[in-house]
């Protein structure tokens, strides 16, 4: 399968190309929306996607970043849902091998009965992935558990189970899918909000749009309008019918705290038991020189537009971490944190969030607005295909989705991609000395484009790290402005490069200022706008971190 062309993806260019009329208008540029854009465009529909903030600025940059079947749902007996997750996980590994990477998970346990139960579940999990080249689970002895997590407290080290799932960078996965959609002809307008739906003859026939950066308004006509607006699905649905109460999306907040890996030495993802007596588990996931731990699952104190780590969330994560690792970490020890809202579908009144449906739903309103919500990052492709299948049946578009064969920015196995980049770097005297770990990071972020990104960094003499200790190169800032739909400083530092959550000072004054200067140059910001962007970024990080301090 060919890799999408390396077209520049600049915001202004996309806005200029926004048509007056399309077959499908998609509201929301999270993973679900970009998935629908890719699927519809690849069936030859004309497509526009509008996102009121940045791509992935909602839940799709705030997940646990796992591409997984969700082994724990086997306990609820929902084998079909787990099977779908496993199938999509293995597809995504093939479609984006640079971004969806196998990760071993270790579940430590000191109880013989628990281990037997775990192994029974894992045997089913293995069976669901049979024949797709995924290593099966294995029982670990005490020494092997200790090798996976040298810092584990003694009670957790007697033995365990290891199984495999995948990790990703959720925001960059969203970007890759968006890029593939653009390569199929979809136009992506970010920082563009749907403020009203247009109607004619009792049907939704498009939307009124407002540019949230310059305030300009415009209108777009559409045969179909699809809302992929995550936890805001109810709000968008009420633009169609202000009295609608049918679509109940309950936003459940999940938080993650990020620590230096030296504080929590782990060599695999570690599954930590809950400390509140329920069967929820947390993950400690290695992430370069950092480790992140999460997640919680809470319906209280939810702020839809500005989710934030609340002190009880932080306390819960810290208690589970400290119990498992025998540490005494506090919120002050974390280098960063994030909070995301899960678009859960209310299944039964008063159910605990862990019991609410993780499935997706498609609802067609009386005037034709199609809403898709729920689901998981992992299953976005299937969700998108389900929506477009419905439209295709009415429009006579090809009946079958072909997106399972789309390559998302990488043309071959990850090892080949890394080797190709190292070879390219060693041929160029300017890049010969770039450390291997930085090259690998470039490959994981940019896939087949990494050599081009590296050369662009070298051309400008911007090969050093943007932030000391983090693997992002200075030259990636300009690259992101030109090729990755960046419209604001936080698009860059929160999502294209994950600086905001990996560094105590969210990057620090000098790198933040430097990045702001480059974006000002690229995007034509006046000095005042540049200052506002820096302040806005720091405010957003401070708010989201809650009790985790931002040291400036
Ligand atoms: P979103 O990403 O929220 O996108 C909706 C978009 O709509 C937003 O960007 C918003 O700005 C936009 N929008 C809203 N209103 C308008 C409007 N009027 N005009 C224009 N745009 C609008 N899944 C996994 O598979 N693996 C995991 O490890 C995992 N971990 C998770 C951990 C947490 C803490 C949470 C909260 C979720 C997790 N999930 C995981 C689930 C997964 O992240 C979500 O299901 C998925 O990201 C939802 O994507 P979405 O596109 O539907 O919503």
Q: Could you walk me through the main structural features you see in this protein, from its secondary elements to its overall organization?
A:
With 552 residues, the chain is of the alpha/beta class. It is built from 17 helices and 17 strands. It has helices at 11-16, 31-42, 79-95, 112-128, 142-148, 170-183, 233-240, 311-325, 380-395, 414-427, 436-446, 450-459, 475-483, 489-496, 499-502, 509-523, 527-545; strands at 21-27, 47-50, 66-67, 101-108, 138-141, 159-167, 187-189, 192-200, 203-211, 217-227, 249-260, 269-273, 281-287, 290-294, 336-345, 360-364, 370-374. The strands form two sheets. Strands 3, 4, 5, 6, 11, 12, 13, 14 and 15 form a nine-stranded mixed beta sheet that branches. Strands 1, 2, 7, 8, 9, 10, 16 and 17 form an eight-stranded mixed beta sheet that branches. Helix 2 (31-42) packs parallel to helix 6 (170-183) and helix 10 (414-427) packs across helix 11 (436-446). The longest helix has 19 residues, at 527-545. The chain is globular and about 65 Å long. Residues 27-33, 50-53, 57-60, 62-66, 68, 193-194, 228-232, 236, 254, 295, 340-343, 373, 375-378 line the site of flavin-adenine dinucleotide. Flavin-adenine dinucleotide binds next to helix 2, strand 8 and strand 15.
Protein traits:
alpha/beta; nine-stranded mixed beta sheet; binds flavin-adenine dinucleotide; eight-stranded mixed beta sheet; 552 residues
């Amino acid at each position: 399968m060919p890799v999408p062309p390396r077209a520049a993806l600049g915001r202004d260019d996309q806005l200029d190309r926004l048509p007056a009329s399309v077959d499908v208008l998609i509201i929301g540029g999270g993973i679900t929306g970009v998935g629908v854009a890719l699927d519809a465009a690849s069936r030859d529909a004309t497509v526009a996607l509008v996102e009121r903030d940045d791509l992935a600025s909602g839940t799709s940059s705030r997940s646990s970043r796992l591409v997984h079947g969700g082994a724990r749902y086997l306990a609820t007996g929902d084998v079909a849902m787990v099977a779908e997750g496993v199938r999509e996980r293995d597809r995504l590994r093939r479609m984006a091998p640079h971004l969806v990477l196998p990760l071993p998970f270790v579940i430590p346990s000191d109880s013989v009965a628990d281990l037997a139960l775990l192994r029974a579940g894992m045997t089913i999990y293995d069976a669901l992935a049979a024949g797709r080249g995924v290593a099966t689970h294995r029982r670990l002895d005490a020494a092997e558990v200790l090798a996976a997590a040298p810092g584990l407290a003694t009670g957790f080290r007697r033995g365990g189970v290891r199984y495999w799932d995948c990790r990703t960078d959720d925001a960059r996965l969203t970007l890759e899918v968006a890029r593939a959609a653009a390569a199929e002809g979809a136009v992506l307008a970010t920082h563009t909000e749907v403020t009203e739906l247009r109607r004619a003859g009792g049907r939704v026939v498009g939307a009124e749009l407002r540019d949230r950066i310059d305030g300009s308004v415009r209108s777009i006509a559409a045969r179909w309008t699809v809302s992929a607006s995550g936890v805001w699905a109810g709000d968008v649905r009420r633009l169609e019918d202000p009295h609608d109460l049918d679509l109940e999306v309950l936003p459940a907040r999940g938080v993650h705290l990020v620590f230096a890996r030296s504080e929590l030495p782990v060599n695999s993802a570690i599954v930590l038991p809950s400390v509140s007596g329920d069967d929820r588990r947390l993950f400690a996931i290695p992430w370069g020189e950092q480790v992140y731990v999460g997640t919680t699952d809470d319906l209280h104190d939810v702020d839809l537009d500005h989710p934030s780590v609340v002190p009880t969330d932080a306390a819960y994560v810290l208690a589970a971490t400290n119990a498992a690792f025998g540490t005494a970490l506090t919120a002050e020890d974390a280098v960063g944190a994030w909070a995301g809202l899960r678009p859960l579908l209310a299944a039964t009144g008063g159910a605990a969030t862990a019991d609410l449906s993780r499935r997706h739903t498609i609802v067609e309103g009386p005037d034709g607005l199609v809403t898709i919500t729920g689901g998981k990052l992992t299953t976005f492709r299937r969700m998108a295909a389900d929506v477009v299948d419905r439209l295709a049946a009415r429009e006579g578009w090809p009946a079958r989705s072909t997106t399972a064969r789309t390559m998302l920015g990488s043309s071959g196995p990850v090892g080949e991609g890394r080797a190709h980049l190292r070879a390219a770097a060693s041929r160029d005297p300017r890049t010969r000395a770039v450390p291997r770990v930085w090259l690998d990071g470039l490959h994981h972020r940019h896939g087949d484009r990494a050599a081009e990104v590296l050369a662009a960094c070298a051309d400008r003499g911007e090969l050093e790290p943007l932030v000391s200790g983090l693997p992002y190169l200075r030259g990636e800032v300009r690259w992101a402005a030109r090729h990755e739909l960046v419209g604001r400083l936080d698009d860059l530092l929160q999502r294209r490069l994950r600086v905001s959550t990996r560094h105590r000072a969210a990057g620090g004054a000098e790198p933040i200022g430097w990045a702001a200067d480059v974006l000002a140059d690229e995007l034509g910001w006046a000095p005042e706008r540049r200052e506002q962007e820096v302040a806005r970024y720091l405010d957003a990080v401070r708010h989201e971190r809650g009790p985790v301090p931002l040291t400036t």
